[in-house]
Write a structure and sequence with these properties.
Length: 154
């Protein structure tokens, strides 16, 4: 789970930039939505227009999410963590759940960030305890990467 949240998977936006067209991430999202409706066994599936608009709304509002994070979101939906659809695939309910997921994701990233910082401080203290004449080294590159990840993900 942590790797899905903090790894180097492309975001929807970078997927679009790498592919050179917005078409690919939109189609990927539509496939996820159809798969969700089929999995849920709802009687009324997403219409073509709902699929198109839902994909566009996700792209516009959540393009900072990584593909792996969206995969977690759809897995959480399928596991019933955010309730269920009642006979109809409901784009508004899905968007509300995506907002809940985003909040969960931010909380998880904060926990991971705090745990990483704690581990680094503990390692630096241990290094200093073993050799008091040495000052703990916090590599600039590591600091820069963490700073970049923190500002990107929050």
């Amino acid at each position: 789970m942590e790797r899905c949240l903090t790894g180097n998977a492309p975001t929807l936006k970078s997927f679009e930039q790498q592919a050179g067209k917005v078409f690919f991430p939109l189609k990927w999202l539509e496939i996820q939505l159809v798969d969700l409706a089929v999995f849920c066994g709802v009687k009324e599936k997403f219409t073509d227009e709902q699929l198109r608009q839902s994909s566009e709304v996700i792209m516009l509002n959540f393009s900072h999410l990584k593909l792996t994070e969206l995969m977690i979101f759809f897995q959480k939906l399928k596991s019933g963590e955010y309730g269920k659809f009642y006979g109809v695939a409901d784009p508004m309910a899905m968007m509300e759940n995506l907002q809940k997921f985003k909040q969960w994701r931010n909380e998880q990233l904060y926990i991971i960030y705090r745990e990483t910082e704690k581990r680094i401080r503990e390692e630096a203290k241990l290094q200093h305890d073993e050799n008091p004449d040495c000052k703990p080294i916090y590599l600039y590159k590591e600091w820069e990467e963490k700073k970049c990840k923190k500002t990107q993900n929050i």
